[in-house]
Amino acid sequence: MDLFDHQRQLLIDAEAPLAARMRPRTLDEFVGQGAIVGEGRLLRRAIQADQLSSLLFYGPPGTGKTTLARIIANTTEAHFIAINAVLSGVQAIRDATSVAQEKRGLYQQKTILFIDEVHRFNKSQQDALLPWVENGTVVLIGATTENPYFEVNKALVSRSRLFQLKPLQSEDLKQIAHQALNDSSRGYGDRRVVIDEDALDHLVNIANGDARTLLNALELSVSTTIRNDAGMICITLAIAEESIQQRAVLYDKEGDAHFDIISAFIKSLRGSDPDAAMYWLARMVYAGEDPRFIFRRMVIFAGEDVGMAEPQAIVVVNSCAMAFDRVGMPEGRYPLAQAALYLATCAKSNSVMGFFDALAVVEKEREAEVPNPLRDNSRDQEGFGHGKGYLYPHSYRDHWVVQQYLPTALQGQVFYQPSNQGYELKIANTVARHREAQCEAQLASIVEVNPEQLSTGPIDRQTDQWLQRTLSQTGANLGAVRDRIFDNAKLQRHHVVLDLNAGSGLLTWEAVRRVPEGGVYACGDNVQTVAALQEQASALPQLIQPIVLNMLNKIDDLIVQLSPELQFNCILGRNIYRSFSENTIESLSQFLDSSGRWILAETIPQAAQRLYSFLDRNLIDVDLYDRISTAEESHYQPNGAQYLNLDKLSQTFVQAGFTITIEQVTSKTELYVSEALCDRWFGRNSTYIQQLREYLDQTQVETIRQLFLTRLLKQTVTFEGTIAYITAIRSYDQLGNG
Predict the structure, then answer these.
(1) If DSSP codes are grouped into helix, strand and coil, which group holds residue 532?
(2) Which residues are CB-neighbours of 129 under 8 A, at least 6 positions away?
(3) Sign of CA dihedral 373, 375, 378, 383
(4) d(CA 113, CA 123)
(5) Does residue 109 register a pLDDT over 50?
(6) Dihedral of CA 574/577/578/579: which sign?
(7) Which SS3 state, helix, strand or coil, does residue 498 take?
(8) Average pLDDT in the 378-394 region?
(9) What whole-number distance in Å separates Cα of residue 291 and Cα of residue 324?
(10) Quick check: 594 and 738 in contact, CB under 8 A?
(11) Which long-range contacts (CB under 8 A, 24 or more apart) does 19-23 make?
């Protein structure tokens, strides 16, 4: 770059829009997307370690896709090339790969190729990329607003990790706005700008999760406002409303929003939820969906999901469709809403004004996301988990099941009120009972939340085979315990997990397998355990290796040393109760995400099979048998070291602000009594023998020991045990008041 080019670039940077000037340059400046780049996440570790594989960033505009690529460019030692698919073609790809080959051959330097709007490349252009990604000539980073499963070459998708970026939260947008107002070099910190709270709230609300939209509106507000007599620029609500008047609705008639929202609409009709049906119908109309398409789907629904239960349904829907064709828009919204209400309740109604209540919510409130169980699962269930957790009403009694169909922020909202006229009088009680059941389930937190997966990636077959081989070495009973723990954990691929008692890695390796884009922290309680875990982990790629911590009683200090901002999505463990101090739960819970959970599996010693039950009391003196049973039972009394106090454990969690669920499961195991097991049970220094010595003399103890060895050694016995599966989530009140 010569002097003139440098001067030209400085001028371009100075005159760039505020959104471009305020683009974060480091991860510390980046705001939002904690599920992807938060502390402990794979992507953050990969960027910091400069160990990137091919990536695809997918999400709506203004959520940070290009920004993340620029941050990578600022931190990597690799050669970085950026092209825009809108302006470039195959020749740009050839030029980039030519440079990459030169860098690789002459300087052993890898090249990162960033392609913005990668979905704009046609199939042949994307095919031209494939060989260079395949042989490692370039590391591809693509950014797209379209679902990569359908807009990006499947071969490229299979070789890349996908990260889905979500619309920014209101707090994130406010933080970005304040950064712009306070930054003297890139923003308005050198000006005296004051923005009213209601004005900022309006900008944030209408921006709808888009940082670029927010900054553009803020820039327009500042640049068009005249300084007052005190030399200040005061942004009021009126000025903010002038700067950004209408929300930009993300809706592509061929994309995810189209399929997801019509899926939510149909599922709401099937679930007999008129409120949710009104909401999703309003979303489609507000976004400009063709009403004839909606009518077509309702005609199909009338035949498929109503059928002979109400033979007039298809007649009514067809009549409404004909009425719509006659009157057109906007009055055609009345028969459109009436048909939807009829299908949701199987009754004619004049309560279609509920649709306009829903439309008012769409116009005034921030656009809410489709809950993951209601999303269309026919296209990318494997990648992002869309549709997971949906309960099919036809599988339940009365063809109805307690399930939330409205977005989380709108649960409990009522749009449709049955009148006391005609058939509506008959259905009023049913609608009311359904609403009451949903509200009760919401308050009791019994409706399961199934979040959307935010990342996915190619399968590393070598790593997967290693993990599967390690996991398969677990005994059947331990494997069942492990699987039940992870079923309760509800892990997502990007989650961060803490295993409190890693031991041989029973839970650690399964966690590594389940959170490939997240992170696993494993705690060993002694030097030998830590060394063994680290040795096993060395067989895995460095980025996905669990971080092994030593000593449970110091774990909170170790976490703070690693990163004070580290937040776990799940803290889990097996048989860790005796390692707890009084403050362990409270101290570790500070590192648990607001929606995170504790998952524990604790063997209940006092409910386990007693060893004396394996003896035939007819073969020994009755008094001696009673002494043995008394000695062993004393070991499991409430004040004994082997006693698990579930009530105390529950109280500890409740005091820490959690709602706790405990499920006790009893199982029988065919146990082979080996010499090693006999030595552990009946060795001269075993805990069991020590307990007997408190009730029997030395001769009697030796008699009993020999009797056990004679009767049990190398025999298979049926051993019965009970495990308590403990799930603790933050209390509803705490979340609501937090």
Answers:
(1) helix
(2) 93, 115, 121, 138, 140, 153, 156
(3) negative
(4) 18
(5) yes
(6) positive
(7) strand
(8) 70
(9) 9
(10) yes
(11) 19/211, 19/212, 19/215, 19/216, 19/219, 21/186, 21/187, 22/176, 22/179, 22/180, 22/183, 22/186, 22/187, 22/215, 23/66, 23/67, 23/70
Matching residue, tokens 């029997």: 696
CB atoms within 10 A of CB 367: 18
Compute the distance between CA of residue 429 and CA of residue 442 in angstroms, rounded to an integer: 20
Q: What whole-number distance in Å separates Cα of residue 258 and Cα of residue 260?
A: 6
435 or 214: which leads in pLDDT: 214
Residues 602-643: tens digit of each pLDDT: 888 888 778 778 777 777 778 888 888 888 787 777 666 667
167 preceded by a cis bond (ω within 30 of 0): no
Q: What's the alpha-carbon Rg for the chain, to the nearest Å?
A: 32
Q: Which two tokens stand for residue 174?
A: 């406010």
pTM (2 d.p.): 0.66
Burial class (CB in 10 A: 0-12, 13-18, 19+), 735: middle
DSSP for 343-368 reads HHHSS--S-THHHHHHHHHHHHSPPP
Cα 28 to the center of its chain, rounded Å: 22
- Distance between CA atoms of 174 and 197, rounded to whole angstroms? 10
Domains delineated in the chain:
33-164 (3.40.50.300), 170-243 (1.10.8.60), 256-444 (1.20.272.10), 459-604 (3.40.50.150)
What is the Cα–Cα distance from 718 to 668, expressed in whole angstroms? 6
Q: Which residue has the tokens 């260079």?
A: 132
Assess contact for 596 and 571: CB atoms under 8 A: yes
Q: Is the pLDDT assigned to residue 223 strictly greater than 70?
A: yes
DSSP state of 329: T
DSSP per residue, 162-187 = EEEPPPPPHHHHHHHHHHHHH-TTTS
What DSSP string runs through 49-94? HT----EEEE-STTSSHHHHHHHHHHH-SSEEEEEETTT--HHHHH
DSSP 16: S
- In this predicted model, what pLDDT tens digit does every residue of 486-518 receive, in sequence order? 999 999 888 999 998 887 788 888 898 888 888
Taking the C-alpha atoms of residue 474 and residue 140, their distance in angstroms, rounded to an integer, is 38
| 215 class by beta-carbon count within 10 Å (0-12 exposed, 13-18 middle, 19+ buried) | buried
- The separation between CA 78 and the C-alpha centre of its own chain, rounded to angstroms, equals 31
- Looking from the CA of 466 toward its CB, the CA atoms found within 13 Å total 14
Instruction: Pick the closest to residue 69 from 96, 58, 494, 98 (CA basis).
Output: 58
Q: What is the pLDDT of residues 692-724, one digit of tens each?
A: 777 778 888 787 778 777 877 778 888 788 899
If residue 433 lies in a helix (H) or strand (E), which one and from where to where? helix 422-444
Distance, in Å, from the CA atom of 478 to the CA atom of 500, rounded to the nearest integer, reads: 17
**pLDDT tens digits, 314-369:** 888 988 988 888 888 888 889 999 999 999 987 533 444 566 677 777 777 666 67
Question: What pLDDT is stored for residue 467 in this prediction?
Answer: 59
Q: In the block, which residue shows the tokens 């109604």?
A: 349
Rounded to an integer, the average pLDDT of 297-317 is 82
Helix or strand (DSSP H, E) at 220: helix 211-223
3-class DSSP state for residue 615? coil
Angle at 426 between CA 307 and CA 395, to 5 degrees: 45
DSSP bridge pairs for 600: 573, 726
